[in-house]
Each structure stands twice: as C-alpha cells, then as structure tokens.
C-alpha cells in the first residue's frame, strides 16, 4: 500500500528547478505520481514504504541543493 509524502521546500526560483526535483524523486525506487507545485514550493508523491521512506526522499531533494522545511506523510 502506497503512502503519500508532501515536502514543503524553500522558495523555488525557476521552472527548471521544478523539473529537476520532479525527475530525481520520480527516478527513486518505490515512487510514483510525483508532482512539484511551483507556486506553493511543494513536492507531492506516492511511495511504497516497503521500498523507500520519507527520510530517503528528503535526502534526494536536499542532495540536489534544495531546502526541505517540512515533511508530512499520510
């Protein structure tokens, strides 16, 4: 069963940032339905908790050089 993660980012400054984050998270094992909301500076995705977790997904984003201010998992 998939869980949903919502990561609140620091301000995104360009659409290419959005694409970069979306691709990196989508390429992570166990992730599907990734959507970056540019104006809200949020990343939403579904993930399989048997394959990955919120900490791993947060590290994907911070590894790209973006700040994750808050993480919610449902």
Automatic annotation (TrEMBL):
The keyword Protein biosynthesis does not apply. Pfam families: HMA. Residues 3-69 form the HMA domain. The keyword Repeat does not apply. This is Copper chaperone CopZ. InterPro entries: Heavy-metal-associated_CS, HMA_dom, HMA_dom_sf. GO terms for molecular function: metal ion binding. It comes from the Bacteria. Keywords: Metal-binding.
